[in-house]
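Course assignment 3, question 2. Fill in each field.
Student: A.L.
Task: Predict the tertiary structure for the chain below.
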Amino acid sequence: MDHPERLAVFGDIHANLPALEAVLRAIADMGITRAVLTGDIVLRGLEPEKCVACVRATGWPCVEGNTDRRVVGKKVKAGTHPSDMRPGTRTWTKTMLSEKSLNWLDSLPHLAETTLGSHRVVAVHGDLPGLEGHSATDAQVIATMDALGADVLVTAHTHFAAVRWIGGRLMINPGAVGEGAPDDQRPSWAWLEAGPHGLHAAIEHVDAPLAPPRDAAHRKGE
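Answer field:
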């Protein structure tokens, strides 16, 4: 009997190394060996360089997130005010990243695609017109999937985990690894499975409060 094929999806790590390592352990514990990452590797958390190194070591495809783009594009000027160097800010994050890591972040594509069984999976960060927030209409989602040629659309950005079926096609947001909500600080990720009975998807959480609320992590100027 053929075993179902699985693919993990996760992102919005935000330089939170303990949360990232916990999710990677959970993926390995489920025997999943393939994944696609949805971006936002850095910014606001305290381990940007180690998180980039950890993600690169997996060899899994990863798309560019808006925070990755903001850090790469940040210009650090001489005489930067000390308040701009608070841990987690854009300026601080950029100074904590090696040139190698910055170049890798700058090279990330806007989308990544793979296959799962007979299904074409396309991952984007989710800050596309019509996909920001979780209020996109069915018509907007299908139009985006048609334009991308996707049977499954993996999106992120909102930190709102959701599995959404539209006419037999799937849109999934795995939530956030590195930042949680005041009432749920568990790192979130998701997996897809293609087997004899079709496509299945599920949201998972690491059972530990490793993801601080975004509001608590946010600082002016990030």
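Instructor remarks: Strands lie at 5-10, 35-37, 111-116, 119-124, 152-154, 162-166, 169-173, 188-195, 198-205. The radius of gyration is 17 Å.
Grade: pending
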